[in-house]
């Protein structure tokens, strides 16, 4: 079996990889390390995948995976590890900012550890020429990670590490491949992991542009939540509930506005023991439209409906499920009030009405989430 499988996730890193790969090959040959290099490219517009294939076409130790329709550093790393053949799996950036010279030392440390991390915060390590703002962001993210997760390493934000094949086989199916801090996934999914940090100085990027953005930060926070609390309440449900709360607020506000144009005395129909006014009906429709599109482009963005007909189908199903949820909410609300009446507490108590309505909302939200997840967006965890 090969000693090392080095995985290089990439997106628009053509110029860097054509320089980096020969440097890595020379390093491995000098240190007598048997290896393979796996470039996992997210169908880069600069044709990174093609440039690497053409340049190293005759070298069996260089492999290229071109991912079409998939993006993300963490998922790219997982896809690379899934086909890797080495005893150890190494991950480093393709932008030449990680110091490849410490790889032999990191491999030596693997004899006694499950994971070895290239760290900017131990020994002679450092952030290089990072500005004060970027350093503060990194240290802030590190602090948040340590508050959320029981980890002991000093640089959990590193994207440079080596793990044992056995560790990937053990927890690989638990990894959430969203975001960019894949190291946190390995550190957070197993307690008591044997780790070691080797210091290095972060280099300045020469070619290409940084991938840091607002969505990266959002995905990082989402990953932390999922690792720490995801086994109790899924992040998808939390997002769905937030959208539901916004929709409820929009419903109340729009109902107030519509009441200026339509008198509540003009009843349209009676539904689940409750007469529905024109303003309430229009407010419900308005909030439903808002909830569908927010859920489509945020909560279920991984499997979002696209195109006119797919959205029309999705919206239709969403409306039907929302009506089912409304029926459940009003039915539970009214049934709860009847129980209170029988206990002679009385339904005129405002607090009781609020509690009964909340119970109805909880039942309706849980039902709607399950149905929408599995039917409207067909999301399979």
**How many separate helices?**
12
**How many beta strands in the DSSP annotation?**
9
- Mean pLDDT across the residues is 83
- Measured distance between first and last alpha carbons: 33 Å
Strand order, biggest sheet? 3-2-1-4-6-5-7
Give the helix proportion (percent range): 40-55%
| SSE pattern, N- to C-terminal | EHEHEHEHEHEHHEHHEEHHH
Q: Major sheet: size, sense and barrel closure?
A: 7 strands, mixed
| Shape, per Cα inertia axes | elongated
Oligomer: single chain
C-alpha-based Rg, rounded: 27 Å
Helix-and-strand structural type: alpha/beta
Strand percent estimate? 5-15%
* Poorly predicted residue ranges: 265-276
3D architecture notes:
- This protein is an alpha/beta fold.
- It has helices at 14-30, 48-55, 73-83, 103-109, 132-148, 165-171, 182-189, 214-229, 235-258, 278-299, 308-342, 350-376, and strands at residues 4-10, 35-41, 62-66, 88-91, 115-119, 161-164, 195-199, 267-271, 274-277.
- The strands form 2 sheets. The chain has a 7-stranded mixed sheet, with helices on both faces. Strands 8-9 form a two-stranded antiparallel sheet.
- A hairpin with a 2-residue loop joins strand 8 (267-271) and strand 9 (274-277).
- Helix 7 runs parallel beside helix 8 (214-229) and helix 11 (308-342) packs antiparallel against helix 12.
List its salient traits:
elongated, 7-stranded mixed β-sheet, 12 helices
